[in-house]
Amino acid sequence: MDSRLTGAKHLLPRRLTLSAAALSLMAASVFSQFAVADAANTTGLAVTDTTVTVGQLHSATGTMAISETGSIQAERLAIDQINASGGILGRQIEVIQEDGASDWPTFAEKAKKLLESDKVAAVFGCWTSASRKAVLPIFEKDNGLLYYPTFYEGLEQSKNVIYTGQEATQQILASLDWIAKEKGAKTFYLLGSDYIWPRTSMKIARKHIENVLGGKVVGEEYYPLGNTQFGSLTNKIKLKKPDVVFAAVVGGSNVAFYKQLKAAGITSDKQTLLTISVTEDEMLGIGGENMKGFYSSMKYFQTLDNPNNNKFVAEFKAKYGKDSVIGDVTQAGYLGPWLWKAAVEKAGSFDVNKVVAASPGIELTTAPEGYVKVHENHHLWSKARIAEIQADGTFTVVHESELIEPNPFPKGYQ
Amino acid sequence: MKNAYESLLGGKQGAIGLLVLAVLILVVFPLALDSFRLSMVGKYLTYAFVAVGLVLCWGYGGILSLGQGIFFGLGGYCMAMFLKLEASDPESTKIQSTPGIPDFMDWNQITELPMMWQPFHSFSFTLLAVLAVPTLLALVIGIAMFKRRVGDVYFSIVTQAIAAILTILIIGQQGLTGGVNGITDLRTLNGWDIRDDSSKLILYFVNAALLIGCVLLGRFVLTSKLGRLLMAMRDKEERVRFSGYDVASFKIFVFCLAAAFSAIGGAMFALQVGFMSPSFVGIVPSIEMVIFAAVGGRMSLLGAVYGTLLVSFGKTYFSESFPELWLYLMGGLFIVVVMYFPNGLAGLWESHGRKWLSRFALGNKVFGQSVVKARVMSPVKVATPQPSRELETTP
Amino acid sequence: MDVSLSEFGAIAIMQGFNGLSVFCVLLLMALGLAIIFGQMGVINMAHGEFLTVGAYTTYVISSLTLQYFPAMQPYYFFFAIIAAFVIAGALGWLVESLMISKLYHRPLDTLLATWGLSLVMQQAFRSIFGAREVGAEMPAWIMGSWAPSEAIDIPRNGLFVMGLTLLCTVTIFLMLYRSRWGLQVRATMQNRVMSRAVGINTKKVDRMTFALGCGVAGVAGAAFTTIGSTGPTAGSLYIVDTFLTVVFGGAASLVGTIASAFSIAQAQSLMEFFLSGSMAKVLTLSAVILILMVRPQGLFSSKVRK
Amino acid sequence: MNSPAGFQAAKPVLSIEGLSVSFDGFKAVDNLNLYVDRNEVHVVIGPNGAGKTTLLDLICGKTKATAGSIDFDGRELSKMREYDIVRAGVGRKFQNPSIYENLTVFENLEMSYPKGRKVFGALFFKRSAEVIARVEEVAAEIFLSELLDMQADLLSHGQKQWLEIGMLLMQDPALLMLDEPVAGMSVSERVQTAELLNRISQGRSVLVIEHDMEFVKSIAHRVTVLHQGTVLAEGSMEAVQSNPKVIEVYLGH
């Protein structure tokens, strides 16, 4: 008599069978994959005699896709190269790529899938701090291993994460020292997009300027992400006349910011500007003519002239086209698979605990940025480099620091 | 007793519809899905609270709020604040400069727990706040807008702007709120580890039960005189006003109710997913939740739940398999549903599903409608692209 | 801080100009919307994407010019503006005939359907132009500043946008209030049935109006490349601001839109100068909403018996 | 609400004095005085744009007056909110039948039953025997007893007009205002409606706007002619019809 009743009769068993079928399929594939449990894999990871599966977790869609595409490409390049050279412990790397879709909960969901369903041996991924914060508890709970490529605010150190980008002090302190010395800068104007990385970076910068350099911060400001009106800001800069503008503006705001600086007559012949948020990637949108003569602080620039980098740039362009550009994070992404390979081989195992234990002290002499070494605190020793931006959008390195020890919890800067 | 049966379960037909849903989410999913997929369903079901609320205030009340994320977010934040305080005991935060406060506060040089956070040490206060804070905000917005007869698209745009403001505020006050990152790494609820598979299962059932409770409450409202008034208002607001009703108060009520539902969803989200971030407060998630309701059927409480599940599954599936296609699909789906199937899945079910079933299963038996409800019911006309103005058989 | 009086004056002048320039940007973005929402009652959530269409058009034309007619580079921008108008307008025409025309009298549904459209358009941009932001190479005369005195720098792109805004506003005014078409638009808005009865092709009027609104959005997008960046989601950033501007002004009033763009821009610009950027945004939006609560019909609205 | 008839016959139930309203400078109602007595059927006529509907809007609170007072049974309506005015005992029918088309006749009437008018009252409203009895009583009065379970959009135009009148009767108002109650009705329906009005004016006052002079003649106790927002003439139908000013502006056409 009642349709709902018959609906239940007919729909229920079908739903059940469907899901049951899916489940058994999943289980079958899982078991066939995890058949091997030798010394190299005692924790049920997705490792067979000939393959090892890793995950890639970046945003391929959404607002962050712009930034994360480079990391995806660089990680792939490294993995392909490792596979071509015989893989890791005799196994070829297979990649499961997941899309975080610029959405933090999606990142968390996908991280869970990679770790719990796919049992990947390592994950290369995340870009924003927010996405890393979202997946971090999952990596810690499931004891996964994440290689995180972005320069970031520090204040974090997890057993389950290797940070291949710089933490804030590495990027900021040396560059501030340099600009203070080189330009005799005493007054600074700090500004950034409104989220944790710029805010934390500026806090560190302020402490350093006030306590170490004996300078003065004459302005500190944050604009909402995506803001495109910087007219009032340019006037404030003119009013305060700082020796240096220290900028950490990101995303679409970046383009508007530099275009409007130029339009307001704030150019490098009148104003020194140092940014910690402009890489080759951002430059594409901004256009070199808008930033000519400004300085950028990164650990890597595409124009670095050393054999490692020349080879890396050539290979990257061969794979992704001659117009592709390589920014700091892209290079850091490239380091991830290589660092992992070195640690796995040192440990003789894919087990996360063993790989983590083997990681500190791992050195990479073939890194495009030159030389890196994994610190006890899971960050990398690296150099800070300052480049002057040219009218054609390329970066000319004008200063290179010594290797800097990573210090994610800098005493006196918090 | 009879009365409750009619108003809560919607007679035999409604009761069976509800039973199917209950069996699906309480029995089938937990049995058929592994813990990973099940916790995904759990997450989707938290969005369903919002969609159910939207059926009440948009489908029946004609009030399209594009800011339901506000309430989902506030509910979630209230719960997350409590959980974060519990996760920030002095022992586990001893590496901080100020142990015992949430980690992001420490990063922002805050050395003392802010006033706003103090009461969230208490679980009972938190439970109260989860409901009260969003509902009170909805009340304020509702009074301000509806008493002054700001309606229709104006209301939609204003709620959207409020969602934008709240997002900027949360992001800007990162010492208080965790900023863009949100409040992360939530661990225990009164000492009970919410990250275990077993506790996740329990939370899933709590969530599902609460959702069914909200559907029941929604039905109670819709089958009451208030439900008829809502629809009457949507179609003939003047007539209702000049029949002696304070139209605004009904709109405020249903808007607050939808806000409270959303808030419960948000709190359950924080519990199940283990974090809360401003990305749930803004404009995009708010409109996505409208999609859920639209696809499921804006006039159907059960449809909203199915719509949420279906769209969310689709999102996960397509963004895994064809990330490029996903936005085309989502956008296209939305356009098609709004233009050609304004009553969504529920409408299709009424017009085609039933017929198909009857031919298939019952042969020549005729479908009857329960006699008591006949006064409210009428067949849904799906042929016209206009959203059907009739009250559904099973709201 | 050592700031001389003359410098302070210069900065005041520049700040004043900045307010004007924000006003012009806001107005240019809101104009198209004001026509569509105000005259047709249609909520076009994809308005921002039509803006983006204009911006990408400019980008494409800039690239083509550089490649094939490098000598024309200084002048391509005028051509780009016209092309942006035509392409965005044509797209609007198409959208109106395929989608909007089926949804009149269902304003809330139009809102939702156009939001779906905005998703589709954003992904289309991504598929065609890639996810990265692109920058159109600007002719040199638009970039940089004009310095009437030592201390004053007036952005040339600001001046350019101002001129463009003035042109668009005047043109639209003339079209709406002096042309036969404008008369038809206003007649249709006031009484659709009657207009049809006296022989106005209301369908055509609707389509024209919508296309015009989208075309103006395209122009705004072209102008916007001189100030900001062009990416798949660039347009969606402005949609809330733009809608609030129109609603705040009073939906059916072009003068209202201008007044509201002016007050919002000045408030924002002034608060940005004295507070931080984020707070300025929050305060401006909140103020607009508070005022809307007191005056739900917006700044300018006519009282009529309904 | 329903005061006993003739008890204080001297005092009109509705006294409008000096009422004015303007829309952007246009005076739709200008310094108008109008009185409605108890148990009186008072008809307002006038050419289009005379301000008839605006007058009803002003009384029922839909439009706020710029100046003047509207006294209803000792209460000042011009300061009250719409629903309070209704609750005070003023019911109004709109020009186009305004009913809930997807509800049944029964439900339409029930909606106007003056109980459960507040949020929680409506939430816990019960369809008691009392309610049913009242609905059936009113339905009989408006000739719709047989059609209680019919969906309202299936009614004829005239029946819809009756239904709306019935919805007002449910509230048992002391003053009933009808805007063109017989528009679109057949001749026999008009006769029935006139009969209905005469019946329901027992015990309450009725203010009617109407164009149909035959109908007006059959119901009006008193007629007021409005022109350009002011009273042009007032009196019995015969008196008004013979008034030269009225003939000039209205009837003479």
Automatic annotation (TrEMBL), chain A:
Instruction: Look up keyword Signal and say if it applies.
Output: yes
Q: Which UniProt keywords apply?
A: Signal
**PANTHER family this protein is in?**
ALIPHATIC AMIDASE EXPRESSION-REGULATING PROTEIN (PTHR47628:SF1), PTHR47628
Q: Which domain of life is it from?
A: Bacteria
Q: What is this protein called?
A: Urea ABC transporter substrate-binding protein
Pfam name, any one:
Peripla_BP_5
Secretion signal: which residues? 1-37
Alphabetized CDD domains for the sequence: PBP1_FmdD-like
SUPFAM superfamilies xref list = Periplasmic binding protein-like I
This chain's source organism reads: Pseudomonas aestuarii
* Alphabetized InterPro entries for the sequence: ABC_urea-bd_UrtA, Peripla_BP_I
Q: Indicate whether Magnesium appears among the record's keywords.
A: no
- Bilayer-crossing residues are none
Q: Cross-referenced Gene3D superfamilies, in alphabetical order? A: 3.40.50.2300
TrEMBL record, chain B:
| InterPro entries per record | ABC_transp_permease, ABC_transptr_urea_perm_UrtC, LivM-like
Q: Where the protein is mainly located, per its record?
A: membrane
What would be one Pfam family of this protein?
A: BPD_transp_2
Topology with regard to the membrane? Multi-pass membrane protein
Report the subcellular localization: Cell inner membrane
| Protein's recorded name | Urea ABC transporter permease subunit UrtC
Membrane spanning stretches: 15-33, 45-74, 123-146, 153-172, 201-222, 243-269, 301-319, 325-349
Sorted alphabetically, the keyword list is:
Cell membrane, Membrane, Transmembrane, Transmembrane helix
- The protein's superkingdom reads Bacteria
Automatic annotation (TrEMBL), chain C:
Per its UniProt record, what Pfam families does this chain match? BPD_transp_2
Kindly state which keywords UniProt assigns to this record, in alphabetical order.
Amino-acid transport, Cell membrane, Membrane, Transmembrane, Transmembrane helix, Transport
Q: Where do the TM regions start and end?
A: 20-38, 50-69, 75-95, 158-177, 210-231, 237-261, 273-294
Keyword rRNA-binding in record? no
Where does this one sit in the cell?
Answer: Cell inner membrane
Report the membrane topology from the UniProt record.
Answer: Multi-pass membrane protein
Instruction: Give the chief site where it resides.
Output: membrane
Family in the record: Belongs to the binding-protein-dependent transport system permease family. LivHM subfamily.
Write down what this protein is called.
Answer: Urea ABC transporter permease subunit UrtB
Q: What is the lineage of its organism?
A: Bacteria, Pseudomonadati, Pseudomonadota, Gammaproteobacteria, Pseudomonadales
From TrEMBL, chain D:
Recorded hits in InterPro entries, A to Z, give: ABC_AA/LPS_Transport (IPR051120), ABC_transporter-like_ATP-bd (IPR003439), ABC_transptr_urea_ATP-bd_UrtD (IPR017781), BCA_ABC_TP_C (IPR032823), P-loop_NTPase (IPR027417)
Keywords in UniProt for this one? ATP-binding, Nucleotide-binding, Transport
The answer to whether the entry has keyword Nucleotide-binding is: yes
Q: What is this protein called?
A: Urea ABC transporter ATP-binding protein UrtD
GO MF annotation: an example:
ATP binding
The top of its lineage is:
Bacteria, Pseudomonadati, Pseudomonadota, Gammaproteobacteria, Pseudomonadales
Name the source's superkingdom. Answer: Bacteria
User: Pfam families recorded for this chain?
Assistant: ABC_tran, BCA_ABC_TP_C
Start and end of every ABC transporter domain?
14-253
